[in-house]
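LOG
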Amino acid sequence: QVQLQESGPGLVKPSQTLSLTCTVSGGSITTNYYYWSWIRQPPGKGLEWMGHIDYVGNTYYSSSLKSRTSISRDTSKNQFTLQLSFVTPEVTTVYYCARGRMGTDESDSRGQGTQPTVSA
């Protein structure tokens, strides 16, 4: 069974870049027909898809975040990474990494989430 674990800094200053890493175990991020997403949930709101990287390395981003978001991967470590630039305190939220199958919008596995603090 695939497992995902988010990691990253606990504290980020406003206007800096937030970098989060998702470590995957129990399955490879290059396995055919899966994609690997970053999702966030602001306080009191629903889940928001930020973007994903597929099994061959193609990336796709939310139109509202595209200019500030970058997703990459390290296949040797079975990890993928989110970089979100120009963070603001208003987006202090929970970030999840997840796996989905190509052709579907649903995640079949998700990490427990991480909630960095954005503060000076």
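LOG (cont.) second protein
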Amino acid sequence: QAQLVESGGGLVEPGGSLRLVCTASGFTFSSYAMSWYRQEPGNPGKGRELVATINLSGDRVNYADFVQDRFIMSRDNARNMVYLQMNNLKPEDTAVYYCDAWKYTGYDRTDYWGQGTQVTVSS
């Protein structure tokens, strides 16, 4: 069955960097666009916030405005992995980060989600 596993989260000081990794299995990874989302802990009313999306081939990435050139998303279709390099982290980046594999078949959207990885930015 389809599975996504995120890793690389942790505690970092403001201005620091982390690289998140999402490893996919059980589906044709190269046929799915990939997105990173985040959700603030203890604030379920806000919902998940889209961080970045990468296309199938990995040559096009769209970022949320709040990223402000600090994050870089990439993918390796040979390894079934997607990455989020996060630089110049701020306390407001503290959240659980999730990867999402998605595609449309006609009007029907299929999503696979990982379990999330915690990122805490604090001094």
